Fold this protein.
Amino acid sequence: MTTTDTEEPTLTIDELAARTGVTVRTVRFYGTRGLLPPPALGPRRVGHYGREHLARLALIDELQHQGMTLAAIERYLNRLPDDLSPHELALHRAVVASWAPETVEHVTRDELHRRAGRPLTDAEVDRLAATDVVVRVTEADAPRDDAYRVDTGLLRLGVELLDVPFSPETVLAARNALLEHSRAAARDLSRLLRDAVAERDAPEVRSLSAHMHPLVVQALLTTFQRSLREELRAWLDADGAEGRGGRGDQH
């Protein structure tokens, strides 16, 4: 199913559970705890779920993978804005995945489909390979057939980008731009934090660093989202004004 953020929910609870690898009971439990928004009610009051539910379940799964308890996950989700789109939730999931050490795994094609959350066509695997998310492993590198080296931290985000109408070259250029600027920000923040804790003992510094890591990443994500919205709003407003001016010239 390919949808946009604004399309109506179309999945039943059984289909949602099958797509995400959780049980129907778990979906209902998350709903009672407020971790998932209620489904849209269709004919005969049958609940239907959509992209936001898929994105939230993926984020919950990643938070659990990082070792967070259910209570901690509730606190994390409660701090998020209520109007986040599925793509913004996917961005949060990618940031959460970055808390863990970089993980590159060798998987079969079937396992690649499972990790991606849906079957991938050859063309889609080629697009993921073009953005360095997936690398086909040759016979010399691995004894088994149909093997892939996967950046697990970027896979879900890469799959989300498959539905975005940009070329692999544009996506790769955007990734390189983000890497360049995020590394520069990381160096500056690291220098500031290092100066702030210069007089502390090493064990205390390590503990403080572990506590600050997710907070700093969350702050970076929030400020980047706001800056991006401002840039896009200015771009679209200017484009709209130009269009209105062009139409005015015709009268």
In short: Residues 209-244 form one domain. Strands lie at 40-41, 47-48, 104-108, 134-136, 147-151. Residues 1-6 have pLDDT under 50 and may be disordered. The longest helix spans residues 202-249.
